[in-house]
Amino acid sequence: MGTAQKIIPHYTYEDYVHWEGNWELIEGFPIAMSPAPIPRHQLIGGALYAEFHFALKKCSHCRAYLPSDYKVKEDTILQPDIMVLCQTPKNKFIDFAPSLVAEILSPSTALRDRNTKYEIYQQQGIKYYLIVDINTNSIEIYELKNGQYQITPANADGSFEFIFEDECRVNVPLNEVWKE
After folding, report:
1. Which residues are within 8 A (CB) of 14 and not within 5 positions of it... i.e. 6 or more apart?
2. From the CB of residue 48, how many other CB atoms can be counted at a distance below 10 Å?
3. Which one, 38, 117, 166, 171, has the greatest CB density within 10 A?
4. How far apart are CA 162 and CA 64, in angstroms?
5. Which residues are CB-neighbours of 85 under 8 A, at least 6 positions away?
6. In sequence order, which residues have a C-beta less than 8 Å from that of residue 76 and are 6 or more positions away?
7. Architecture of the domain delimited by 37-178
8. Whole-prediction pTM
9. Are 99 and 126 in contact (CB under 8 A)?
10. How does strand 100-104 pair with strand 128-133?
């Protein structure tokens, strides 16, 4: 008798859209996004979104978005906490690389955000990846240079100038998100 064959389901976007609740899908593997984030996670996320929203008012193409489905490929759908898009989505999901993605760490997502998603975002050519740590009140800014993320420090005043695809330059006071 031979060895038993292991059957591991492999899901795609077509499966994903029928699920109830909040999920992500990474290389066909479903990941439940529950329980809901803690209030401080939401507070800091809202503050960061607001800073980008107001800074981008001067740009003609770029806008800040709260969690939406980012379809990387048929079997990989992510929901970043915040995205900056410099083109208008034409589907029910984002099907192009955002210009910026921010993930707010939580105990259940930190390892995935720092490793799996980091690699996916880097491979997708997302220019900026922000990792927000609400426990240490810090934001790590990763900028894509020559196909690799490099950590880039904020200015001494806690602000950072982001330059997006359409040559939109915005100075975002990142330190403002910690003022509760």
Report:
1. 74
2. 22
3. 117
4. 13
5. 62, 63, 65, 94, 96, 98, 99
6. 25, 26, 27, 28, 120
7. Alpha-Beta Complex (3.90)
8. 0.93
9. yes
10. parallel
Q: Which residue in the block uniquely carries the two structure tokens 């996004």?
A: 33
* Beta bridge mates, 100: 84, 128
**What are the residues facing 83 on neighbouring strands?**
65, 101
**76 vs 120: CA distance, rounded Å:** 10
Domain ranges of the chain: 37-178
Q: Are 106 and 135 in contact (CB under 8 A)?
A: no
DSSP secondary structure string for all residues of 67-78: S--EEEETTEEE
Among 176, 123, 171, 180, which residue's Cα sits nearest to residue 149?
A: 123
**Block mean pLDDT (10 aa), the chain, length 180:** 70 95 94 88 97 94 96 98 96 97 94 97 98 97 98 95 88 93
DSSP state letter for 123 = H
